Amino acid sequence: MSVRAVISPESRRFFRSRGVSLVEVLVALVVLSVGMLGVAVLFVQSVRSSRSALLRTQAVNLVSDMGDRIRANAGAGAAYDTSTYGGVPASHGCAQTVGGSGSNCTPAQLAEDDLARWMEAVREALPGIGDGPPRAVVEYFPGRPEVYRISVAWHEPSEEQPFEYHADIVLAPRQVAAAGGP
Questions:
Q1: How far apart are CA 103 and CA 135, in angstroms?
Q2: Nearest of 24, 43, 21, 22 to residue 32 by alpha carbon
Q3: Residue 152, H or E segment
Q4: Tally of domains in the chain
């Protein structure tokens, strides 16, 4: 007696419908692959957006830092204008460093020292424009009140045009109380 004779037609249908065919497995793999590809694209986009947000945050912090330096040395006036140094201010060692102490400087020397340190920080924090460094500029507009425009510009690898961030700092005139007065 053969095995075929023992298996009824109803049970044959039952045995055929069990299990997964090779075609079904391949379709499932294609669906899974498309889903994983979508996740990978989202991951790359989120990394790119995170880098852009980090660079913009650094630009805001750098401009704010220079604004604080200008407010702390308000008597320097035009010494903070980067055009007076031909774009390359010199470091005078006015501020204390980790390895040594700072020296006494005039307000103008401190302004030049602040610009040199700030421009170095901009070069370290932001990517350059083309083959050059990022742009870091302070413009001085004399008057009452004094106005400074601080700007930084950089180029992100995935963008065609450079980004720029600037802020205007307005220094209100200070009034000095007369000796013996209230």
A1: 28
A2: 24
A3: strand 146-154
A4: 1
DSSP state for residue 90 in the 8-state scheme = P
Whether 179 is covered by a domain: the verdict is: no
Average pLDDT of each block of 10 consecutive residues along the chain (182 residues)? 59 61 89 93 86 90 94 88 82 71 80 91 88 88 90 86 91 68 52
Q: What angle do CA 44, 48, 41 make, to 5 degrees?
A: 20
Q: What is the CA radius of gyration of the chain?
A: 33
Q: Which two tokens stand for residue 3?
A: 């095995």
pLDDT digits 0-9 by tens, 108-117: 888 899 999 9
For the beta carbon of residue 146, count every other beta carbon within 10 angstroms.
18
Strands laid side by side in the 135-141 sheet: 135-141, 146-154, 163-171
Place of tokens 């053969």: 2
User: Is 74 in contact with 180 (CB distance < 8 Å)?
Assistant: no
**Predicted local confidence at residue 14, as pLDDT:** 57
Q: Is residue 151 part of a domain?
A: yes
Which range marks the domain in which residue 51 is found?
9-171
Q: For residue 19, is it within any domain?
A: yes
**Is there a domain that residue 182 lies in?**
no
The widest CA-to-CA distance across the chain, in whole angstroms, is 127
Closest CA to 147 of 129, 124, 172: 172
